[in-house]
Amino acid sequence: MKPKKLDSKGNIIVGTTAILIVVLLLISIFVITTLNYIQNSNIDSEANDNFKYIIDDYSTNLEVLGRDAIAEATQKVYNGLPVRDSPDQIKKNLNKILISKNEEFRQKYDIDLSSEVISVEPTDSPWKVLFKVKLNGKKDMDEFSQIVERNASIEGLRDPLPVAKLTIASGIMAYDDKIHYKTALSAYMLLHDFDSPESYIEATAPMTIKKCPYDPYIHHGDPGVLRDCLDTGYFHESADGSCYLCRLEGKGKCPHYGMEVFIQTHTPLGNESLSCSDHVVFADHYNGAKIDPSDWDSLILDSSHRKKYGLVGNESY
Ligand SMILES: [Zn+2]
Ligand SMILES: [Zn+2]
Q1: For residue 129, how far is its CA from the centre of ligand 2 (angstroms)?
Q2: C-beta neighbour count of 13 within 10 angstroms
């Protein structure tokens, strides 16, 4: 009798454990399913595949349209008008552009779309701007509401900073894919009492944003590299330089990760003057000296920028 009793007790324990495990499994499955459901709840499951294709198509378009919206803000700056809140300006531009895109999608997919740009933000790359757009769709009885996120590239757009900072009235000009400062920069330096403003008469800088391929930048000290960098007019990543969104507002410096470009002087003068990285000229204001004093086109650089670009000696590029 005793062993039998033990047996039945054992059976009860095994049975209870088994039931507990099954219950736990069911709870786990329920929790996982619920979490998945919450994640996907903004897409109606029946229409999921159909909407997914449309949302993907819309997202791909957003890369180009976001960039168009930025370019419109840049054009405003080049037209001589100030952009005081660039994310807001770009939001407005994009909302307008998306109205016609939504209409295009209505004809293409027979779907009612409405959209609202939620944010335009800098990213941890100075070459990209992040767009977030809330997209609502309705087709027959199915509906969805989703936030679409895409990065737009600013490479190939014009640098708005020189014009936004100095204004068109300063006499600054843009042609041959270059910013021609004429006397605008020297007048600005004279006004702020910086050293040797005459060094920056007729200074030039690249206009179209191109990312410098000579990375790490210390390679600018290698033979021929700096010359090619200046001839092509490349821009460089810089924690001290301003991001594209802040450039539109005429800020030479900002809290975001940004970029810098060399402002090239063309002068026989060998005086100390502002170091030629644009964030130094427009915001940080410290001096540098010509890398090669005998070269009219030599960059005026301070020691930390010389180190960053590997230009420590008396290089003539
Ligand atoms: Zn470069
Ligand atoms: Zn910024």
Answers
A1: 10
A2: 10
**d(CA 212, ligand 1 centre) in Å:** 5
221-254: per-residue pLDDT in tens? Answer: 999 999 999 999 999 999 999 999 999 999 999 9
CA distances from 22 to 9, 14, 29, 36, 236 (A): 20, 12, 10, 21, 60
- How far is ligand 1, taken at its centre, from the CA of residue 156, in Å? 16
Note the Cα 264 to chain centre separation in Å.
Answer: 25
The bridge status of strand 273-274 relative to strand 258-260 is unpaired
Q: What is the mean pLDDT of residues 171-175?
A: 97
The pLDDT score that the predictor gives to residue 21 is 84
Ligand nearest to the CA of 240: 2
The pairing of strands 236-238 and 142-153 is unpaired
- The alpha carbon of 170 and the centre of ligand 2 are apart by a number of angstroms equal to 24
Element (DSSP H or E) covering residue 41: none
Nearest ligand to residue 233 Cα: 1
Confidence of residue 8 (pLDDT cuts 50, 70, 90): low
Residues in CB range of 252: below 8 A, 6 or more apart? 161, 165, 241, 242, 278, 279, 281, 282, 283, 284
Residues having C-beta closer than 5 Å to ion ligand 2: 243, 246, 254, 256
CA of 8 from ligand 2 middle (Å) equals: 74
The amino acid that residue 273 corresponds to is: S
pTM of the model: 0.83
